[in-house]
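Private note to self, pasted from the team thread so I don't lose it. Backbone tokens:
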């Protein structure tokens, strides 16, 4: 069977070797006579997988014991509520940066629980830029500062870390594990799994331990990070199969040479695709050069009347899920870790052929 190239923004491509291992384990995991997803989450087998996943992730990202690693449910969107519920405390106010659609959702959710100060917005540039920090209007003694590390829809990515004197909270759903980061710069890092971690259904939260235990009295137990940490992410039944697949992805990343090696490949893939777009009068990308995402590459055809034809022909060519988000239109190629360089090369070849025939 020939697999297509999948450019979906999420749920996204998984490494083929990981899928093959999961296929072989499906009916009989390690000779146990049943699938791991059928085992009790309290069993030594599942606990062992969870412990291995956490340690491998710690090694990949250089996470110290000063941080708790939580494997939760609900997606990153649930953390839009969990963040203020766990961190606002007596201050009742926080700073947020608005760089696109996911920022807006985080801000709206934060406003349910306290005062939100939007320190900067890229609205004036239609969210194609990241406002430089010197233009930010920081609040007076906020509980934390929150931002989206990469706007999956708009294709805008932070390549620098904000410098503030309060806990820094970042949604890294679509960039985590794509390149090395300094975890110690952050109070909280959270991410939905369905980009670079594994399948949908799992959510990662990395939280500095001194920030635990600050939750609002009305914070639901399922959103309370301290309860999750005290129970090793098993206060309730975790998404065991998603966790198992994430552990396999972490192992795969180690086999690829870790995050430094992944960054080299990811930058090369993105550079190829952006160069093809920049060198064309037929395609364009609206994002400022310094903030163009390595993971999500939106592009627009000069003639929008050709969008439908482009999508039909690209799908027929085995290039799937290139339609842009409904809120912005156009096209979008998400080129996460598991999207091979061959996939990007095939996309570029198709784009050039399409331009020659329709330009």
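Design output:
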């Amino acid at each position: 069977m020939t697999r297509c190239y999948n450019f979906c923004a999420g749920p996204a491509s998984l490494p083929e070797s990981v899928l093959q291992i999961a296929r072989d384990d499906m009916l009989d995991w390690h000779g146990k006579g049943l699938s791991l997803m059928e085992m009790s989450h309290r069993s030594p087998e599942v606990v062992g997988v969870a412990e291995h996943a956490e340690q491998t992730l710690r090694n990949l990202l250089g996470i110290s014991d000063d941080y708790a690693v939580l494997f939760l449910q609900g997606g990153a969107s649930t953390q839009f509520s969990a963040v203020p519920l766990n961190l606002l405390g007596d201050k009742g106010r926080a700073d947020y940066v608005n760089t696109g659609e996911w920022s807006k959702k985080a801000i709206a959710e934060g406003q349910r629980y306290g005062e939100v100060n939007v320190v900067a917005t890229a609205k004036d540039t239609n969210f194609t830029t990241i406002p430089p920090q010197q233009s930010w209007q920081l609040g007076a003694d906020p509980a934390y500062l929150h931002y989206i590390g990469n706007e999956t829809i708009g294709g805008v990515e932070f390549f620098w870390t904000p410098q503030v004197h309060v806990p820094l909270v970042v949604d890294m759903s679509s960039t985590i594990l794509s390149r090395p980061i300094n975890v110690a710069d952050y109070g909280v890092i959270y991410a939905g799994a369905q980009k670079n971690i594994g399948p949908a259904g799992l959510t990662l939260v990395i939280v500095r331990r001194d920030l635990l235990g600050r939750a609002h009295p009305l914070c639901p137990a399922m959103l309370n990070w301290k309860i999750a940490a005290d129970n090793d992410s098993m206060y309730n039944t975790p998404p065991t199969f998603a966790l198992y697949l994430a552990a396999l992805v972490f192992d795969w990343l180690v086999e690829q040479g870790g995050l430094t090696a992944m960054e080299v490949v990811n930058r090369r893939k993105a550079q190829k695709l952006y160069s093809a777009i920049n060198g064309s009068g037929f395609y364009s990308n609206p994002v400022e050069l310094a903030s163009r995402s390595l993971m999500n590459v939106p592009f627009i055809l000069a003639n929008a009347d050709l969008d439908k034809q482009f999508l039909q022909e690209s799908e027929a060519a085995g290039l799937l899920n290139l339609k842009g988000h409904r809120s912005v239109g156009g096209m979008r190629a998400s080129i996460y870790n598991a999207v091979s360089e061959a996939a990007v090369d095939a996309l570029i070849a198709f784009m050039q052929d399409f331009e020659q025939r329709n330009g």
